[in-house]
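job 3f2a | input accepted
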Amino acid sequence: MTAPLAPATSTDGRGALRTWLRLLACTSLVERAVRRRLRERFATTLPRFDVLAQLDAAERDGDGPAAGLTMSELSQRLMVTNGNLTGLVERLAEERLVRRAPSPRDGRVQLVRLTVAGKRALDAMAPEHQAWIDAMFAGLGDDDRARLYDLLGALRGSIRASLDLEASR
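job 3f2a | predicted structure (169 res):
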């Protein structure tokens, strides 16, 4: 049996590292569960789900043009490289879940958007995905979730500031 970690507020100077490891452990647990459930329930992968969800969100929220998102926009939203995304979008297009078309402004740029079949597939998965996440976070009350959300936003700001400072040196 392993000893529990000391609190992140310990005086040994490793509080930030402990917090990072705890955050990473939580992320890994959620991601592993979601990947397994998507595979078992829908015979799909998390990256495929993420592409469909990002295309839907861009269209629904009006963030992307009605014609779709460029591969670069999609890769930024998914935080992956264009190279990692190309094969995935190609397979989704072969399965007619997304459609690619040249941009009317620049024929070298591909626009990607959901097809009716892609929207239908996402609509079948999204409610269950939401329920899985809700169940995993059920141990936290609304106030705790809101506080955690705010703290993670502050952490993101701290990380960006640190990286910006590093880049400016």
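job 3f2a | The chain has two domains: 19-138, 141-169.
job 3f2a | closed
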